[in-house]
Amino acid sequence: MTTKVAVVGATGRMGTFIRGVVDASDDFSLVATLNSRSDLSEMLEADVVVDVTEPSVSPSVVEFAISHGKSVLVGTSGWSEDRVQAVNSSLTEHPDVGVIFIPNFSLGSALATSFAATAARYFDSIEIIESHHAGKVDSPSGTAVRTAELMADARTDRGPVAAPHHDQRARGEQVAGIPVHSLRMSGVVAHQQVIFGGPGEVLTIDHRTMSQDSYEAGILLGLRAVVGARGVTVGLDQLINLSPSGSEESQ
């Protein structure tokens, strides 16, 4: 028996790709595809919901799904830590429901973010440059926001990064105290650089997405995890074992 999936935002770039991944899988079946003209009730025949809409739409999709007992895999950007915590609070009334937020379905991106959080403990000068296709409606990207927040958390004992002239608009938007610079350009899929400066050296953690094929493994990991999810999970890194001797999937 397959798990029935509804994709909300099914006609967008990521929604179209996810539909293909679901159709090609042996353990999932696509039973509903919702676009901007669809009624959210169309998702109710599914076991789980995938949300890949827009930041202004995503909260209403997640709220509707939760209120009807559907667990949700969220691939929409724009979910800050505060907004995620609000969802976590609402789940107290729905203990059998889970919401998994994945800003980026690329395994390489998840690893790069984890590496950046480790490096952040050793450098005081840190900035992020992230580039996406011209049609991406939000900035900074969800990946950049999560990377900045995890680096800030890792620096609790060390303190804030050095961000000189942060009042100048060209210095980027500060996320968790870390400057983030966003590019939206034709010819780009997704590219993020986290740059660390120290005395006499510069370290760059660079991840570049060449095609949407890089998202397939992460999408399947997220779908399999959301079937039995409870509460809130944030990040693909929470679904894989990042220890050097660990297995591919977390237990």
Keywords:
Rossmann fold; Dihydrodipicolinate Reductase, domain 2; 251 residues; 5-stranded mixed β-sheet; alpha/beta; 6 helices; 11 strands
Radius of gyration: 18 Å
Strand order of the largest sheet: 2-1-3-4-5-11
**Unreliably modeled segments:** none
- How many structural domains can be distinguished in the coordinates? 2
CATH fold-type name of the largest domain: Rossmann fold
How would you characterize this protein structure?
With 251 residues, this protein is of the alpha/beta class. It folds into two domains: 3-101 and 212-239, NAD(P)-binding Rossmann-like Domain (Rossmann fold, 3-Layer(aba) Sandwich), CATH 3.40.50; 107-209, Dihydrodipicolinate Reductase, domain 2 (2-Layer Sandwich). It is built from six helices and eleven strands. The strands form two sheets. The protein has a six-stranded parallel sheet, sandwiched between helices. α4 (107-119) runs parallel beside α5. The protein starts with a strand and ends in a 17-residue tail after the last strand. The model has no long low-confidence stretch (mean pLDDT 94).
